[in-house]
Amino acid sequence: MKRIAIQGFEGSFHDITAHHYFQGEQIQMICCATFEEVFEQMKNDPTVIGLTAIENTIAGSLLHNYELLLQSGMTVVGEDKTHISHCLCCLPSQSIKDIKEVHSHPVALMQCRKYLSQHQNMKIIEADDTAGAAQWIAENQVTGVAAICHADAAKLYGLTILENNIEDNKHNYTRFLVLSDPRKADMLRPINETNKSSLVFSLPHEEGSLSQVLSILSFYTMQLTKIQSLPIIGREWEYMFYVDITYDNLVRYRQAVDAIIPLTRELKILGEYKAA
Amino acid sequence: MKRIAIQGFEGSFHDITAHHYFQGEQIQMICCATFEEVFEQMKNDPTVIGLTAIENTIAGSLLHNYELLLQSGMTVVGEDKTHISHCLCCLPSQSIKDIKEVHSHPVALMQCRKYLSQHQNMKIIEADDTAGAAQWIAENQVTGVAAICHADAAKLYGLTILENNIEDNKHNYTRFLVLSDPRKADMLRPINETNKSSLVFSLPHEEGSLSQVLSILSFYTMQLTKIQSLPIIGREWEYMFYVDITYDNLVRYRQAVDAIIPLTRELKILGEYKAA
After folding, report:
1. Domain A2-84+172-188 matches domain A191-271 at the CATH topology level
2. CATH fourth-level superfamily of A2-84+172-188
3. Alpha-carbon gap, residue A23 to B246, rounded angstroms
4. What pLDDT, in 10s, does the model give residues B106-145?
5. Does the CB of B227 have a partner CB in chain A at under 8 Å?
């Protein structure tokens, strides 16, 4: 029995993704109110596995989760990608005319920007979770309020779908990371089966320092799938780099990392895993 | 008299930044409800200058504004950086115990995450603008509600500051871009005085293609100040790159761009300007 800590309720995208990733295995969800709590759960019990969103094709990277991952010392052991679609749902007694407020997670609200801008009369209210907003409406029989969540969550909580697929862009995918205590990583993904790595490092402010690092990765035939420079908090306009690379030869990958270490500052491997 | 379109009200960070950037010049603000409207104003009247936030040391890039800029065909003619600090403010008749709701812009809410998590009883509600939330409370004499905005905006609207500097991180800076119709760019910043350029391009999925482009920029002594890979909407897990470079020789810079064009797809110069 694997215990998976997620941010969100039953029916949330984290819950849907966890069931997809661990298909065929017995899992038990630990539903947390915040991402901080997910990491707290893992810290308190090293057998707990975490699953957190990290990137979305529309909203970009979830910088706060990168930060939490970095601070936690947990390691990435897997990834999954989930197609995101949203519906607007409310109590069966309500119709679209009754809706004065829309509750959802800020990222979901951002993903339905166009739809919401066509309904200016609806007040937009942030909730901790998409499915949580649906649950709250259902449990408290809240009238005049709709939630934005996955259609599965609407059904789960007995709500009526006013409109489905209200996301601005239909090509909306979220990438999730599966996280664990480094001591448990090998049990979750044999290192020989990995072909992707997430790295973070900072660079001295010298001309061409990034191009040198990327050239070396390229000489070692590492394939770059993501790069993002991020401001280092507290040192304005100095940057840290988050880089994802894929490889088909583990030895070559390790040699590549060894080769760039002397040119980087504070390089940290966030995890090695199998690409989704 | 320059007319500057901004998202937000009098007292907003856009307003504060516009007055700083155009210090000593006569300016007139065009306050817009959305970033879309800022670009609309510029499209309808080519003499209107735009000013929009593009990046924050805590929240990262404002991807939606990058997208609007790219679609609009406007060009960057300047940049400015503003230190962001937030206060919690309300009607003078209210005290902290009375506050049940906090209204502000989503980015400001995110920047005060720690403070807000210590006040779980306050419902978090998204508003279009920080100063707009303050104005709304003042004009409608709304009790039980506080706004998060700059202390100057609180004073402007006659609100009491319950707590100042509530942002999580004191090293909180936002970078703003000054935008204009390309036909007016030369009047706003003589090209010879520029030393910074923002580029966007996509790359074929070939090994090392990014490292080649960055190596060439480095050979031409271009200094990279920002890089971000972004999912191309509609083509999942293919990436576009936003890159900022600085230069001290305009001719060399132009040669560098010419040299990378054949290796990139859809390269576009978002603008050339003087670094802040």
Report:
1. no
2. Periplasmic binding protein-like II (3.40.190.10)
3. 49
4. 878 888 988 998 998 999 888 878 999 999 999 999 999 9
5. yes
d(CA B129, CA B136): 10
Q: Are A157 and A142 in contact (CB under 8 A)?
A: no
How far apart, in whole angstroms, are the C-alpha atoms of residue B100 and residue B190?
51
**CATH placement of domain A191-271:** 3.30.70.260
Give the pLDDT of residue A129. 85
For tokens 């089966």, name the residue: A193
Residue A211 touches partner B, C-beta closer than 8 Å: yes
Show residues of chain A in contact with B81, CB under 8 Å. 236-237
Residue B189: how many CB atoms within 10 A of its CB?
19
CATH code: domain B193-273 is 3.30.70.260
Q: Mutate which of B237, B243, B245, B246 to disrupt the A interface (most A C-beta within 10 Å)?
A: B237
d(C-alpha B224, C-alpha A210), whole Å:
8
DSSP-H helix ranges across chain A = 13-21, 35-44, 63-72, 106-111, 113-117, 130-140, 151-156, 185-188, 209-219, 250-260
Q: What is the mean pLDDT of chain B?
A: 91
**Domain B87-164 classification at class level:** alpha beta
Over chain A (276 residues), what is each successive 10-residue block's mean pLDDT? 93 94 96 92 96 84 87 96 94 95 88 89 88 95 96 95 91 92 94 96 82 93 88 65 94 97 94 96
Query: Residue A111 carries which DSSP code?
Result: H
Contact between B57 and A210 using a beta-carbon 8 Å cutoff: no
pLDDT of residue B231: 66
